[in-house]
Amino acid sequence: MTISPIYTAQGTATGGRNGRAKVAESGLDLVLAAPPALGGNGKGSNPEQLFAAGYSACFIGAMQFATTQDASLAKVPAEVSVTANVGIGPNAEGGFGLSVTLSVKLPGVDTAEAERVIEAGHKICPYSNAVHGNVEVTTELL
To answer: Which pLDDT belongs to residue 55?
Structure first.
């Protein structure tokens, strides 16, 4: 599948998990540190945290966009929140893999409608599409 980007972000890391990461356009400049569970001191950000923040924000946008494409979907309330918990651990091939749990709050939207909005969000969200079939993603409605 070929994608024609309408926007491209640029991030640069040096030093790996115990280094620094910068994002070109925003001025974001982070100290990176592996978490204690991976042998680090945890005194900085790590790739899993950044992935969690990006996925949660993007997933909200995908649900909002979905409701503009399908008028039968309930609107996403302003108080929406998504918490992404990204886990890392060894995989069967000797490397590492990720797991993701998305905890979604759609206040005022009944359960059946919220589940439809979440499903539509997964079809649109580039993070969901990128990890589909490769990362176990669990979604829970709070």
So the answer is: 98
The torsion defined by the Cα of 83, 64, 116 and 125, in degrees rounded to 10, comes to: -70
| Structural tokens at position 115 | 């589940």
Per-residue pLDDT of 102-138, as tens digits, reads 999 999 999 999 999 999 999 999 999 999 999 999 9
Q: How big is the CA angle at 133 (ends 46 and 111), to the nearest 5 degrees?
A: 85
CA distance 36 to 105: 30
